[in-house]
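Page 42, continued from yesterday. The earlier attempt failed because a stray header line got pasted into the input along with the sequence. Redoing it now with the clean sequence only.
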Amino acid sequence: MLRTDFGKTVEEWVEEAPETLLLLERFHLDFETVRGTPMDAVCRNLGTDPFAITVMLSGLRDNSRLLDDSVLRAYDIRQLIAYIIVNHHHFMDEELPHLEKDLDSALREDGSRFPELFPLQLKVRRFIQTFRAHMREEERHFFPYFATLAEDPKAVLLGDQSLQALTEVVRQEDEYLVEDLNAIRQATRWYHHPAGAGDAYRSLIHRLRLLEIDLRRHMAVESEILFQKVLELENEGAQGADQVHGGAAGPMAPAGNGHVPS
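This time it went through. Structure tokens are written below.
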């Protein structure tokens, strides 16, 4: 679907369509400078037809390895789990080592000229460690439970307290990731590299921008689609169990915390 809400600010576009960050990169726009500017005003300043912007954005989404939410909503729980693992987890497992390599190279090449790279590296390494732990926890605990529930909604049941605990774990881990990502955004002024930055520094900033896009899509698929389907199925299973067993609840699902402490 082509966007026509050009009165919204650039920041609102980024929130709703993370690929907007790639358009800013293409037009050499600093997010911090234009974040509060309506998209139609940005287009006027660029001398670009707003419709061309929305077509470009649509093309970025259509040509991405990621599917549109309207397609994913038709997936069942098992399909969504497989999609997340293949398109987000596997992608990150391949991408994060490249990010680390660019970070090391940028420090060697540009650390003396751009000392801000040294505090940035701590923030990036912290995020990577936390995110890797988060992915493994999803694969070892949350996703197997969701798959079991999809197979038989009455096979594994969570009581009210257990479901609340599971939701709280997911919410806290997402908050930790967002906090770490916010620190990286602030340190880079929303993925802006200084004039004269070397190839590795520029590549690092580009990869961080892609990481932001992927994480936003990743979290949206889980919170807005997968978790909603799981909760609906869990409720169906609980209702069935009430009729058969008088409402007895089964064991709690494993819960953990993948956040790396300061």
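Notes: Confidence is low (pLDDT under 50) at residues 244-256.
Reminder to self: strip header lines before submitting.
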